[in-house]
């Protein structure tokens, strides 16, 4: 086996060794359960330091490809059902239906614009062009560029924000790359980065977003290739960065001139905070993703990506080998929605309604002495002594919430629950009493299951 591994290694860096072993595992040449050679034997055979091989092994462990068993050695991970390894599946329990499900993080369907008028207006076949037509409707691209927070070199449309993040990660990241995210971060993003084999490092946050001092130190400790962040209505905390914070972060990021910045503006037009982008300061390194799911409808499955040409062209070129383009019919619907004054007013009403719901629930919770934040978006981030006990207590009252641990790269100082405040249409006092009873559960325990770098929300 030692010869098999060393013979597959062409790049003798830690990342190259990890990539070679990963390929052998994927191909089945290193089957699940087999014991790997020692770090020292691999290092000797390759003529590299044991530290290099140890770093490769750590990358593979973080990606779930191998596991250590103490003195017994290191083994290729056994076959686990993929869903059991996803943070995303821990956010809710599909086998249990509770009367008030506040775990989902989805918009209120009643606040989404009616699509029937747009469908009637554009459903006459006008968008049925050639397979070789531009992937983005020219009229839609013009509207998107007007809305963009900085002039993007290139712009394209894909099938939602997660599709955008997936395609950017696939085009720009390599196995073992150090990638920075907010801590806490959007759980599916953490799943995605693990799937591509990235080594994920959490950057602490404060009330203004990513902590600049912590970011500077992490840049010096590591050599990250990318930073993924949500500029406003951060999921799960609701935090938004202002222009001063964006400028400060941009100045810090000058210390890492090759680092790619990926912004996920997932809340879009229902966010109360103004859109602020690092692309205003670092346009040649910033990729901005604008989603329309929460504002105009999840089933539109549309998000725009704008940024430097080498990133957008790589995404677009690879996409030509798959779906090619996002539905031009749905692009036409989105164009209609973005330019219809009545829809613009409806979305503004939804934004104000979400803000009122957040404020109402937050006010009564604070009145009960509960520590929680809900600055923007549709979610509320509530501190609890123990997330498992709190979720059980809520379930007894027919309320479902999302646990905080799947959002965390590294465990935070306290446990949390994410509550979809945007779905709460009334009964704030009664709900607050239930949430407060869960927040004051006294037993502390094993709810914190995050993993990774020792930086967290504070």
UniProtKB/TrEMBL annotation:
Keywords: DNA-binding, Pyridoxal phosphate, Transcription, Transcription regulation
Annotated HTH gntR-type domain residues: 11-79
PROSITE patterns in alphabetical order: HTH_GNTR
Pfam families: Aminotran_1_2 (PF00155), GntR (PF00392)
Gene3D superfamilies for this protein: Type I PLP-dependent aspartate aminotransferase-like (Major domain), Winged helix-like DNA-binding domain superfamily/Winged helix DNA-binding domain
Any GO MF annotation of the entry: DNA binding
Family under the similarity heading: In the C-terminal section; belongs to the class-I pyridoxal-phosphate-dependent aminotransferase family.
Record-given protein name: DNA-binding transcriptional MocR family regulator
Organism, as annotated: Actinoplanes lutulentus
Classification lineage: Bacteria, Bacillati, Actinomycetota, Actinomycetes, Micromonosporales
């Amino acid at each position: 086996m030692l010869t098999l591994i060393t013979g597959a290694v062409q790049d003798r860096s830690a990342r190259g060794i990890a990539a070679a072993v990963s390929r052998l595992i994927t191909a089945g040449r290193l089957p699940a359960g087999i014991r790997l050679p020692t770090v020292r034997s691999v290092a000797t055979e390759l003529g590299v330091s044991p530290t290099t091989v140890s770093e490769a092994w750590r990358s593979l462990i973080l990606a779930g490809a191998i596991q250590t068993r103490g003195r017994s050695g290191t083994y290729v991970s056994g076959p686990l059902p993929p869903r059991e390894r996803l943070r995303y599946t821990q956010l809710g329990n599909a086998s249990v239906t509770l009367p008030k499900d506040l775990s989902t993080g989805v918009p209120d369907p009643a606040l989404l614009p009616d699509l029937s008028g747009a469908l009637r207006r554009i459903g006459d076949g006008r968008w049925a062009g050639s397979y070789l037509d531009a992937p983005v409707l020219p009229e839609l691209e013009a509207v998107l560029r007007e809305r963009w927070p900085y002039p993007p070199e290139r712009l394209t449309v894909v099938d939602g924000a997660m599709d955008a993040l997936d395609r950017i990660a696939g085009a720009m990241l390599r196995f073992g790359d150090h990638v920075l995210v907010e801590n806490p971060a959007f759980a599916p993003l953490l799943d995605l980065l693990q799937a591509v084999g990235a080594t994920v490092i959490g950057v602490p946050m404060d009330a203004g977003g990513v902590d600049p001092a912590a970011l500077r130190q992490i840049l010096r400790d590591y050599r990250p290739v990318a930073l993924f962040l949500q500029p406003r209505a951060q999921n799960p905390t609701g935090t938004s960065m202002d222009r001063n914070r964006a400028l400060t972060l941009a100045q810090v990021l000058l210390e890492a001139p090759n680092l790619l910045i990926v912004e996920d503006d997932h809340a879009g037009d229902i966010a109360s905070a103004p859109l602020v982008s690092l692309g205003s300061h670092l346009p040649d390194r910033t990729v901005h993703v604008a989603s329309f799911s929460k504002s105009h409808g999840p089933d539109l499955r549309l998000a725009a990506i704008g940024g430097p040409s080498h990133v957008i062209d790589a995404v677009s070129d690879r996409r030509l080998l798959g779906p090619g383009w996002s539905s031009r019919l749905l692009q036409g619907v989105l164009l209609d929605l973005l330019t219809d004054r009545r829809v613009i007013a409806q979305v503004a009403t939804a934004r104000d309604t979400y803000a009122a719901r957040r404020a109402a629930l937050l006010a009564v919770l604070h009145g009960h002495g509960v520590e929680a934040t809900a600055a923007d978006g549709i979610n509320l981030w509530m501190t609890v002594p123990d997330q498992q006990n709190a979720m059980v207590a809520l379930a007894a009252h027919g309320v479902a919430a999302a646990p905080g641990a799947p959002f965390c790269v590294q465990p935070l100082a306290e446990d949390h629950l994410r509550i979809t405040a945007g779905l709460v249409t009334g009964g704030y006092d009664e709900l607050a009493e239930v949430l407060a009873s869960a927040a004051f559960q006294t037993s502390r325990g094993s709810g914190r299951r995050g993993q990774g770098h020792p930086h967290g929300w504070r």
